[in-house]
Design goal:
The chain is mainly α. The chain has helices at residues 2-8, 13-22, 35-47, 55-68, 72-79. Belongs to the RecX family.
Length: 90
């Protein structure tokens, strides 16, 4: 029950694991959750469909997702770090 509640609230796997440990529950069951899709939905709800406009905006979104408990790899994939981003104003 705690698991479903936290996922509905938009928390990621790291936060979920921490909450389960605090409650004294072992997180041995593998959750069938697409964390990338979950992170994209949380980011879209908070920031809309627009991609980060500059390095400051990128960092703000990354901090938000990290605070929600998503992994660094998931955050980079959601924010498009795989694509070449040039935030410098030439």
């Amino acid at each position: 029950m705690l698991t479903r509640t936290r996922v509905r609230q938009g928390h990621g796997p790291l936060r979920l694991r921490q909450d389960l440990q605090r409650a004294g529950v072992e997180a041995t069951a593998a959750l069938e959750i697409d964390w990338l899709q979950q992170a994209q939905a949380v980011c879209q709800k908070r920031f809309g469909d627009t991609p980060p406009t500059d390095a400051r905006d990128y960092a703000r979104r990354a901090r938000f997702l990290a605070g929600r408990g998503f992994t660094g790899e998931t955050i980079r994939r959601v924010l498009g770090a795989g694509r070449e981003r040039d935030f410098s104003a030439d």
